[in-house]
Amino acid sequence: MGINKKKILVTGGTGYIGSHTVVELQNAGFEVVIVDNLSNSNADVVDRITKITGQKPSFYKEDCLNKVGIEKIFANEGKIDGIIHFAAKKAVNESVQQPLLYYRNNILSLVYLLETMQQFGVQNIVFSSSCTVYGQPDKLPVTETAPIKTATSPYGNTKQMCEEIIHDAAVADANLNGILLRYFNPIGAHPSALIGELPNGVPMNLVPFITQTAAGIRPELKVFGDDYSTPDGSCIRDYINVVDLAKAHVVALNRMIEKKNKQQVECFNIGTGRGLSVLELIKTFQEVNELTLPYKIVGRREGDIEQIWADPTYANEELGWKAVESIEDTLRSAWKWQKQLENN
Ligand code: UD1
């Protein structure tokens, strides 16, 4: 099967962003190997991906902290053309409560992966970074040259540290190429509604909380603060469609495989360039889905950044990637996904 296909190993490939990326990789002609410990996802995602693309990705239930297990997968799979490393913990609050868990999980898994890549001669890695590395930027929209600010949580710190680890590893290994994708706020779901975000317990992120409230699972949405220095007083973010985001990974991998990267390690902002306030997002969600969302304004959430949105020019021009989905369609897809969950 797939004699000429390039093979990509995706850690965290059954997760929210991972699953959408596997679909786009397969659509672009890659053969995909998923490694996931299923700590925050289900194995049936593999079947759902298969339903969308008509191709079954290989799947290994394995933890990236099990280095021997990961080595076995590399040995078993033969030539691997690139890695996308999604597998990581991502809850800001939890990271403050359990910092060592975050450092062990997020840092060690990357170190093991880079070591294994070197052992097996795998040269290309795409890393899931975050706009959180910019903190509250001095200038908006934020470009990739903005200074990295002191992290406000262990989670944010692991993203900064992982970026540095990849930089340092590349200095010492001329064969290693890395692309760091700094995601803004991924939302929405695949248009098929076969895959989407599946938060564990009470959602921390805005859009899953909105869709669960609209579905009646939560009584009301709490808007964290309307006294910020923004036009309507609520926080501003750059909400990016998850399928657009997934496609950025495909472009990034092709760039390294075709050796078009200008530096061994490059980083790109993956956002739309459009800042939207929490209140604007709620209004749009209600309008496009023709429903009323119960919400109330409460106090600020500790650690929240007031406003951030991307300058995606460098990604648009140098990477040749651009977000194309509208916020309206994206919020429709989020609601469609939530509704089908109730029927399952
Ligand atoms: C933050 C990080 C992001 C990280 C993510 C992980 C920044 C700029 N972003 O996203 O890098 O990957 O955490 O979870 O640091 N909100 C409400 N009510 C809710 C939930 C959220 O009003 O019930 C508001 C928040 O105050 C915020 C916005 O919605 O203004 C988005 O929040 P959320 O979805 O949690 O994402 P970030 O905090 O931006």
Structural account:
This protein is α/β, with parallel strands linked by helices and 344 residues long. The protein contains 11 helices and 13 strands. The chain has a 7-stranded parallel β-sheet, sandwiched between helices. Strands 7-10 form a two-stranded parallel ribbon. Strand 1, helix 1 and strand 2 form a beta-alpha-beta unit. It is globular. The two termini are 33 Å apart. It binds uridine-diphosphate-N-acetylglucosamine. Uridine-diphosphate-N-acetylglucosamine (UD1) binds next to helix 7 and strand 8.
Question: What would a concise description of this structure say?
Answer:
The chain has eleven helices and 13 strands. It has helices spanning 16-27, 44-53, 67-77, 92-97, 99-120, 154-172, 206-214, 242-257, 278-289, 313-319, 327-342, and strands spanning 7-11, 31-36, 58-61, 82-85, 124-130, 177-183, 185-187, 221-224, 236-237, 239-241, 265-270, 276-277, 295-298.
